[in-house]
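Throughout our pipeline, every protein is held as a single compact record rather than as scattered files. Such a record has a labelled line for the sequence and another for the backbone structure tokens. This encoding replaces a full spatial description with a residue-level series of whole-number codes. For reference, a complete record is included directly beneath this paragraph.
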Amino acid sequence: MKNTISPVATFDQSLDSLIKTIRIPPRPGLLIDIQRELAQVEPSPMKLAKIIANDVSLSASLLKLTNSSFFGLRTKANSVEQAVSMIGMEQSSLLMMGLIARQVVGAKDASMSKFWDFSSKRGRAMTYLAKRIPVCSGNVAHTFGLFCDTGIPLLSERFPDYASTITKANKEFEYTFTAIEDQRHNTNHAAIGALLTRSWGLPEEISTAILLHHDYKELNNSAISDLARGLIALSLLAEYAIHQYHGKILFSEWEKGGNLACQFLGISADQAADRLDELHELFSQEQ
């Protein structure tokens, strides 16, 4: 490995080369239809439900999520229309966005099941944290949690040795995760994920947060929106909780950015520990 690692290229500078070398899935037609309905002056829950119902598999997944402990609804939804009515159009569309991503991104790789399970858990954890540390809405937090690492399966498709890059980056305590990727592949999963979310029409601040989510020094950069920085900080706390829950006490990303995340969120080390304990209890309840 070289003694120095060049800085991560900016998103705009690397955009052209990324398009040429990485397969970015186009925005699916179902997602376009959902977003088009939500963009109406008066979007219709019935029309949204009808759009969702066009895909039997995703409809079943939406019902399963709606009736899960994550929402804790007293009454179970028996149809897509009921699900949309009970959890709302915005929440339904965000869940569908995550389900569509799971269906499209890395769909050819059976090993991606573990990746999406982790992403789903991060999304749920961030939703919980957003209620306790109100730096963003729960819906935005959940969406970011799901899409944060979508560049990983796309890079896995492109580079046969990418798994070894992840292993190396996860053990790195000095350089950023993305710097390791840049050195070995001339791109990184954060830039690819930001490109995907931009092309899929997600909010710009989510794309910005995805692009920067391993550059913890940006938590002190006031030129970056509070929302984007809040997502980065919440995500790090959520991931630390997941790693601890699975018995991995030493987490290199937390060592690099934990203090900065706590400072931005305005919480002490003891308060962070309390949030981690609460998330561990939440994960246990989901088993």
In short: The domain at 110-287 is CATH 1.10.3210.10 (Hypothetical protein af1432).
